Amino acid sequence: MAIMYPESMEYEQVNSLGEKAVFESLKGSLSDEWTVIYSLRWINKANKRSRKAEGEGDFLIFNKDHGILVLEIKGGDVSCIDRKWTSTDKNGKVHFIQDPEKQAADTMYEIIETLKIKGIRDCFVCRGVWFPDTNTKDEDLALNIPKEIVLDYYDLNNPEKGLLRIFDYWKSKSRFNPRSMDDRSFNQITNILMPRIRLVRTLKSISRDVNDMYVRLNQEQFIVLDALEENKRVTIKGHAGSGKTILAIEKARREEENGNKALYLCYNNRLANNIKGNYENTFDIFTIYGFALNYMKKYYPARVIGFEEYSDFEYLMEEFLEVIEDNKEKGLEIYDTVILDEGQDFEEEWIRALDYLIDDGSIYIFYDPLQELYDVDSKKDYNYLDLETIFTLKRNMRNTDEICKSSVNILDKPVEDILLKGIKGKKPEVLLCSNEDELDNLLINKIHELINIEYIEKEDITVLTLNSANKNKYIKLIDKEYLPEIETVKRFKGLENDVIIIPDVSPSYLDEDSRRRLLYVGMSRARVHVVLIVNTKDNYTNYLMNKWNCSDENEFVNKITEYIWRE
Predict the structure, then answer these.
(1) What is the rounded CA–CA span in Å between residue 486 and residue 327?
(2) Cβ distance 500 to 462 under 8 Å?
(3) Strands lying side by side in the sheet with 526-535
(4) pLDDT computed for residue 276 by the predictor
(5) Yes or no: is domain 417-565 CATH 3.40.109.10?
(6) Which listed site, 24, 75, 199, 383, has its alpha carbon 20 to 30 Å from 251?
């Protein structure tokens, strides 16, 4: 059976009974050495004024040993009088039609031109005409339609004989010396005539959808906000990207709007500065260290003389915790509401100190135990963060489903516990290298690709390093024209950007608990796309290959991608 494109005809969309008859004849009578393309529409790519601007070939017959034959089909009763072609349908209605040989020739020349543009000049292309409802054996046709290139009703029973006759005729008239083509050439030409097209959404498009939904409060968050109005000591837990910081800021903003004095505390200095840029003079915003230093300078300046020179944060907190116990009694800094973000990074005694900042006020703690990056043994007990009322946020609010699932996979946590947003994106991209030079080239090329091909602004890209020693190296490596933000994962915690590239992923970050948490935090900063560059020649590779029972490096590479991408 011939290879047909399409495999079958949608009869209700085809008006020509003649074309249906030819389709079934070719499909049922030819062997799989023949490829048949039905109804090929084209537009003149050469832009030659002497050529037809656009057209359609009824059938293209393709064979490795013979080449391409363009067939124009004219069904019904066909006449040519005074060089005017007409066709009479089954209802007796007369239609003016185009010269069938000229139609076939137009398509033939378009195919020849297209193949030339693609660098293919050795494929034989010819044309023919088929009148499937009539007998043409005793008829003299137009001068441009020799009988040798014409098929009729009787050829429906054995089309191959007629097709070969047309090929032979044109070969005898041509100086072209056609030869059989190999599979590669045949597949290349087939793909030109019938390309398989899959249009993949650009990152820019995905970014638009993600950011359209970003910062919108969903029904779950409204419920939590309403509950915060009725409860004074509340803990809100949630995975990275569940909207904790959005809720914390919104709560602080509402408190100030209602005339209450609100304090927002977090651990990450960059996160605090980012929020200050949008909400300064709305409510008080500090890191815990920043608040402690500001408090000490304001009320006990003698106890922090020289702190800027030595930056001894342990000493600062000892002094702060010693004096804060008298705060409520003295009425120094009293807030109606204290909102604590990144609670997993706060020590227990720091949490207890919050009570000295309120007088019949409210405390709200937001945290994700999976983002704790400073407790090396990862066995920290977070009970001290759980207040009287506890809510758990389950819906992903930051990024695409693929990023959310993959980042949770890093920790071997069940994805089923998370309610996905429903925005489909690209799977995190895993690039593999075997040395530092290769890593550097991959990083530079990926940034160029994102900016020049995906049209992502460099401001929407952040390169996050797992090892702070690499930060300056990458800054010097990349041309200023393409230089995106480069930061460490720890300093970027609590923030996000459209595209995150993590270039220094050792296989150990897929296995050791504390390192997996760091990679999880880094990946979850991305809203639209994540790129990981993994060095497979890392010293940890052999250990992990044995642990995963990998027989060779190829299997190890497959394990890495499977580990990150698994559903």
Answers:
(1) 40
(2) yes
(3) 429-433, 526-535, 497-505, 461-465, 485-488
(4) 92
(5) no
(6) 383
Judging by DSSP bridges, how do beta strands 429-433 and 3-5 pair with one another? unpaired
Sheet with 84-88, strands from edge to edge, namely 77-81, 84-88, 94-97
**How many other CB atoms are found less than 10 A from the CB of residue 554?**
9
CA distance 531 to 155: 59
Beta strands 389-393 and 3-5 are unpaired
pLDDT digits (tens, 9 = 90+) for 49-74: 556 668 888 899 999 999 999 999 98
pLDDT at residue 215 above 70? Answer: no
510: tokens are 């897929």
Task: Give ∠ CA 67-109-101 in degrees, rounded to 5.
Answer: 90
d(CA 127, CA 238): 68
Tokens of 277: 């840029």
Contact 495, 529 (CB under 8 A): no
* CATH architecture of the domain with range 215-397: 3-Layer(aba) Sandwich (3.40)
At 214 the pLDDT is 54
Looking at residue 81, its amino acid is I
What kind and span of H or E run contains 284?
A: strand 284-287
Q: Find out whether 196 and 172 touch, Cβ atoms under 8 Å.
A: no
User: Taking the CA of residue 397 as centre, how many other CA atoms within 13 Å lie in the half-sphere pointing to its CB?
Assistant: 21
Q: What angle do CA 144, 145, 149 make, to 5 degrees?
A: 135
Average pLDDT in the 31-43 region? 88
Residue 212 backbone phi and psi in degrees, to 5: -65, -35
Distances (CA, A) of 258 to 232, 247, 271: 16, 16, 25
Measure the CA–CA gap between 509 and 496, rounded to whole angstroms.
20
**Rounded distance, CA 376 to CA 517, Å?**
11
Rounded to an integer, what distance in angstroms lies between the CA atom of residue 71 and that of residue 40? 11
DSSP state of 537: T
Our CA dihedral for 285, 288, 292, 293, rounded to 10 degrees, sits at -80
Say if CB 166 and CB 128 are below 8 A apart: yes
Tokens at residue 522, please? 């880094």
